[in-house]
Amino acid sequence: MGENLKQRFVGALVLIALAVIIIPLMFDFSSSREVDTQSQIPPRPEIKPVIVPEPVRPENIIPAKSDEEIFQFGVDSAEEGSSLDDETPVFSPEQASSLDDEAPVLSPEKASSLDDEAPVLSPEKASSLEDETPVLSPEKASSLDDETPALSPEGLPVAWVLQVGSFRDSDSAKTLLKNLLEDGYKAFVREKKEDTGTLSRIFVGPDVLKKKLVKEKTAIDKKYGVDAILVRFEP
User: What is the assigned CATH class of domain 151-232?
Assistant: First the structure.
């Protein structure tokens, strides 16, 4: 065998081997795949029909009144009289006689004694009772008027407060507020933001008795060296 023939034979074997390896990878020679045509949906459940019985009207139900009877604003005089007659108790002759026997009857002597026991005031005692009627002096009447709180146009009591001071320094406002609270005054602070800063106002009150705050103003001005202003309280 010649050298050329050997090379051709070896080359043919190599090509055959490559064909055996590559062709199965490129082409699928397996048999056709079977498709499962069986449904995976569960079977339809069996639903039994529900039989609803026909409604039956109960026998003990009272029929509803008509609109005219419901919205009837008056009652006939004949019906009203009959209802009163039905409700009036009827006594037999024996019961009526027993009721008459049980009724208390006062003798003339007892009736006269009751008249004698009635208190009668003499003219002097009646005059003394009139003299004992308290009469308020003008000063007391004025003090009562001062203690009566004024009412707003809406009929509500008008409350008043004392503006003790206004501060732009929050620390000074807090110090004054703390001192007032420690001294037993009902004090509070209101802050108003402005372009130049926050303005803190210290108030004492509110109270519906204006005269009471006027007395507190004198004590506060003297102790804290301020000139408090009495203003109307605005919630």
Answer: alpha beta
